[in-house]
Specification:
Keywords: Signal. This is Preprotein translocase subunit SecD. It comes from Stieleria bergensis. The protein has about 180 residues and is of the alpha+beta class. The protein has three helices and ten strands, in the order αβββββαβββββα. Strand 9 and strand 10 form a beta hairpin. The protein is globular, with a radius of gyration of 20 Å.
Amino acid sequence: MRLFSAFTLCALVASFTALNVTAEEKADKPSEVKMFKTGSLSVPAVFKKTKPANFVIEEEFKAGEGEKAARLTMMHASGGVEANIKRWKGQFAGGDPEAQKEEAFDVGNYKVHVVDISGSFAERMGGGPFAGGKVVQRKNHAMVGAIIKSPDGPTYFVKLIGPAETVTANREAMVKMIKAAK
């Protein structure tokens, strides 16, 4: 009986160890997100997949934990590049003027526009950017927003938004992800 128990214990430990390795390996692998009909983004493991906050967001990830967490959201969108950048900037007040910047570059066939904004963020609670709902002012927040425009017209939005400290710490990973779009 002891031989069977020892064998069973060893088998259980081995199975548990294998499950943990698999979970750790999965946590370190990037997530693939589809955009447009044939494109994709490889989301670094630093961003943890989470449930989208509303039906408009197609994919959502987070960086950081608790009150320091920032949201990385992704979705197909419409509207002009400049109109959307203007709308995003209108959601912020104050902030360091030196930190507010825009850049544009090409990634393969895509035209990409990246904007950095910081200050007090007017977050609309419940309903999205065009619906009603309570507005909560989030002080010391930032956003890195990217508009990826496909050659045939549609656009895809990727936004990292949250406490300025977390957004700043994860900006490079987000922009690197955008520059590696397929």
